[in-house]
Amino acid sequence: MPLIVSAGDDRLVKLWRMSETKAWEVDTCRGHFQNASGCLFHPHQDLILSVGEDKTVRVWDLNKRTAVQTFKRENDRFWVIAAHPEINLFAAGHDNGVMVFKLERERPASAVYQNNLFYINKEKHVKSFDFQKSIESPTLLSLKKLGSPWSPPRTISYNPAERSVLVTSTTDSGSYELISLPKDSSGAIEPTESKRGSGNSAIFVARNRFAVLSVASQTIDIKDLANNVTRSFKPPVGTTDIYFGGTGNLLII
């Protein structure tokens, strides 16, 4: 039977089943703390999006009925939300206009080393592509357990000396994971061991060192492969990202 989703002044987002003669409530998503003014089903994923007078856009897991993401404006109440039927675009109307946004990046996390492109596909599998031979590798690693199911990895950095990768995610206000790639490509292998930490950007700067940026504290930590901090420094005020700038160097944005 079809599902209906509704938002109301009781601050609830409700799911209903509908027959030819009646509709009945089957579950409730709780989280808005003022009137919920609009909602819809995601066109292609098992998600619900809702907006409210609490100045938030909230994303819910349709199967678990739990909140997976929240976006907030400081001064504007939201009144209506719409989804593009074909592409990854949404529009939400608020007190001062309309906000058009995407829920996730469409560009996969990737890194180039010599003639190889390392990337993470939509299934959260690490693969490589040989430019000279035009050959795609089998899955090198599965990152299904990394971050949120609804939040794809943001960046990947490759260390050829150690054959390891640094993967960042926006989950938990920014996190990274240091993982060794298997020697043989034999399918969707789960990492046997990894090292984790918090940070918005993480990048290798030498064979045994990587840098981690925390935007909130405006700090860059240089760490060894055991995930221990070897030194820290403050970047220029307003730094939002870091990139590899040659061995031992960082490009600071």
UniProtKB/TrEMBL annotation:
Annotated membrane topology: Peripheral membrane protein
Domain (COPA/B second beta-propeller) ranges: 123-252
Cell compartment(s), UniProt: Golgi apparatus membrane
Alphabetical UniProt keywords: Repeat, WD repeat
Pfam families, per the entry: B-prop_COPA_B_2nd (PF04053), WD40 (PF00400)
The protein's name: COPA/B second beta-propeller domain-containing protein
Lineage: Eukaryota, Fungi, Dikarya, Ascomycota, Pezizomycotina
Transmembrane regions listed in the UniProt entry: none
MF GO annotations: structural molecule activity
Principal location: Golgi
GO cellular component, as recorded: COPI vesicle coat; Golgi membrane
Gene3D superfamilies: YVTN repeat-like/Quinoprotein amine dehydrogenase (2.130.10.10)
Each WD repeat, start to end: 1-26, 29-70
Thylakoid among keywords: no
One GO-annotated biological process of the protein: intracellular protein transport
Keyword Chaperone on entry: no
Tree of life domain: Eukaryota
SMART domains: WD40 (SM00320)
PROSITE patterns in the record: WD_REPEATS_1 (PS00678), WD_REPEATS_2 (PS50082), WD_REPEATS_REGION (PS50294)
